[in-house]
User: Fold this.
Amino acid sequence: MSVRKSDLYNFIPMSIKDLNKIYDLELESYNFPWTKEILRDCILYKYDSFSVFFNENLVGYVIAKITYPETHILNLTVKKNFRKKGIGKSLIELIISESRLRNSENIILEVRISNIEAQSLYKKLNFQIIGTRTNYYESENGREDAYVLKLDL
Assistant:
């Protein structure tokens, strides 16, 4: 029996002991990252957050708030050299499954208008654009709009 590469990915609830790794990946991934304090609070206040490890290395995470009637995905991050391997999709599917278990009726999230790769992933998962948030994200040129996406469960 051989080990498949996908068997080496470990999806676990986010833990405060991994905060430094989470923050380092946040800094590596974004020009305008969340602060370490915000990430810490998401863990301590029991947001619905999951980390993905490949062997011992953090390669991604998702932070969401699953409630009735609506779930909100707040942050999805995958390490650059691990993108396009299904990790982001698996993290979103994990939130979808958890949301259904808790009777959430829909999931919303925001995505930068310029983030075509993320939009493509969300479209594959049947998210629909339902609006725009003007000047939602910081950017090099001031502010950037975000699409609001929704998935009915």
About this structure: The chain has a mean pLDDT of 94. The helical segments are 19-29, 36-44, 87-101, 116-124. Strands lie at 9-13, 48-54, 57-65, 70-78, 106-112, 128-139, 142-152.
